[in-house]
Amino acid sequence: MATIPDQYTDLLSGKKAFAHIATVMKDGTPQVTPVWFDYANGKLRVNTARGRVKARTLRPGAPVALSIQDPDNPYRYLQVRGKVATTTESGADAHIDALAKKYLGQDKYPFRQPGEMRVIIEIEPSSAQGMG
Questions:
Q1: Do the domain assignments include residue 1?
Q2: Residue in 12, 9, 13, 31 with CA at minimum distance from that of residue 21
Q3: What is the mean pLDDT of each run of 10 residues along the chain (132 residues)?
Q4: Is residue 10 one of the residues assigned to a domain?
Q5: What local confidence, expressed as pLDDT, does residue 1 receive?
Q6: Domain of 105, in residue numbers
Q7: Is residue 112 part of a domain?
Q8: What is the count of structural domains for the chain?
Q9: Residues in CB range of 82: below 8 A, 6 or more apart
Q10: If we measure between CA atoms, which residue out of 65, 72, 100, 77 comes closest to residue 15?
Q11: How far apart are CA 118 and CA 128, in angstroms?
């Protein structure tokens, strides 16, 4: 597992930075989506709902890349490449609520849909580089 360079750890937990996550579709084409994320125990975590493209492409072992841009300086960013380590529905509702607190300042995720099943995707970095 790769270590995030110290000078970029603020992008992982100290700032309200968005990540653009790149995945590979079944036909081999890339797909990129802006996402909320957090960082715990050396791994990045994103949250999505079952049935969405991210839930289908981000299976354990799947390759993934994230670009995290500094919201205060668009010329500073961190790129992380890795693989999906785990996916779980356990704790996913609480996780999306925590992300809503970080990104929206709201205690509950306001965009939840009836019957939606949330999933946490944990990404283990294999390389990390930054600029700026």
A1: no
A2: 31
A3: 90 94 96 96 96 94 98 96 98 98 97 95 97 92
A4: yes
A5: 77
A6: 6-131
A7: yes
A8: 1
A9: 2, 44, 63, 64, 65, 123, 124, 125, 126, 127
A10: 72
A11: 27
Going by C-alpha positions, the residue among 36, 41, 26, 113 that lies closest to residue 71 is 36
Q: What is the identity of the amino acid at 79?
A: Q
The answer to whether the CB of 10 falls within 8 A of the CB of 16 is no
Residue 79 is part of a domain; what is its CATH number? 2.30.110.10
Q: For every residue of 33-92, which 3-state class applies, written as one string?
A: EEECCEEECCEEEEEEECCCHHHHHCCCCCEEEEEEEECCEEEEEEEEEEEEEEEECCCH
Locus of tokens 């995945």: 23
Sign of CA dihedral 13, 103, 92, 123: negative
**Residue 97 host element (H or E):** helix 92-104
So what's the pLDDT on residue 2? 85
Percentage of residues in the chain having pLDDT higher than 90: 96
**CA–CA separation, 43 and 51 (whole Å):** 23
98, part of any domain: yes
Q: 3-state DSSP call for residue 31?
A: strand
